[in-house]
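Following up on my earlier message about flavin-adenine dinucleotide. Here are the inputs again, as you asked, copied directly from the submission form:
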Amino acid sequence: MTTSHDYDLIIIGAGPIGLACGIEARKNGLSYLIIEKGCLVNSLYNYPLNMTFFSTSERLEIGEVPFISHGAKPNRVEALEYFRRVCTTWNLNVKLYEKVVSLEPSTMGHVIKTVKGAYSCSHAILALGFYDLPYLLNVPGEELPKVKHYYDEPHPYFGQKIIVVGAANSAVDVALETFRKGADVTMVIREPAILESVKYWVKPDIENRIKEGSIKAYFNSEIRKIDNISVEIETPDGVRILENDFVLAMTGYQPPFEFMEACGIKFRDDEFHTPVYNEQTMESNVPNLYLAGVVCGGLKTNKWFIENSRVHASMIVQAIRKNSGK
Ligand SMILES: Cc1cc2nc3c(=O)[nH]c(=O)nc-3n(C[C@H](O)[C@H](O)[C@H](O)COP(=O)(O)OP(=O)(O)OC[C@H]3O[C@@H](n4cnc5c(N)ncnc54)[C@H](O)[C@@H]3O)c2cc1C
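Thanks, got it. Here's what our run produced:
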């Protein structure tokens, strides 16, 4: 495999924050490349089709490109349109559908190998997000096609008995949307209540649906076994067998820790497995390797989001300029 081109900066991940890093590099005259394993803003592309962002559109803007949406808060289609426009406005240097498989130190900085080739660069950014690895239920039957870890839209669940696992924003959104499109919804929730972190304008809705019984909920309960026609759950009142057509496991996602470790990243000894980085420069424990976006929070995947991590891009590029005298 030959190494092509020496870049000042390679950014792994073309999510909103990876794109923001590319824009900042371009503005500052660095040679750069963004490498993405899927399509542009791959995580957003895989979000539920009818989702609406909780942020207003101007808070998601990057690269001074105005984000105009029909409502105050944009939806997924508007966000995809927006980030495509950002990419063309800045004529960003992005390679799509090219998964990065390794990043190793070299005399120059790093060598990055992908499924299609190899690249060298003096600095690199991991802007990997957290949406690729769902937390598994780890129960028999999880491999059945009726069990989903990603939710797209409500129509397939019309007239079906579904179980939604989880008590955070995604689970609540899925339970309400499928219920309103004609599904028979039961929530299985490990905790004693809907989580406090659920959006304040949605929480009363789900709590009232549960109270009136239109959405059933088992609290302090967990799925034990899934088969083609039923699900076994353990509840405080004993084991229950529920008739079931689909299980939507909205149990969250985690960053690609294995890949990060293989890149040499170390982690703090805390409950969130937070990666080690300098909070002023975003540089990790590996010299000239930076972290940006949601990946910086480790398992606390709601710590960093688009709104509050857009700033990582300029922090990193300023640090690179300072280090390298560019
Ligand atoms: C339903 C939902 C609603 C949300 N609403 C909001 C909101 O209103 N406001 C807000 O600020 N945030 C919101 N968020 C959070 C926000 O979407 C994420 O924080 C944001 O996507 C983080 O951007 P990122 O660039 O860090 O990561 P991502 O957008 O996840 O991008 C990471 C990219 O890296 C790529 N990648 C990973 N591994 C590799 C590899 N080995 N090689 C190449 N590419 C790789 C992935 O394919 C992905 O495209 C929401 C999240 C969800 C799930």
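One observation from looking it over: The chain has a mean pLDDT of 96. Hope that helps, and feel free to reply on this thread.
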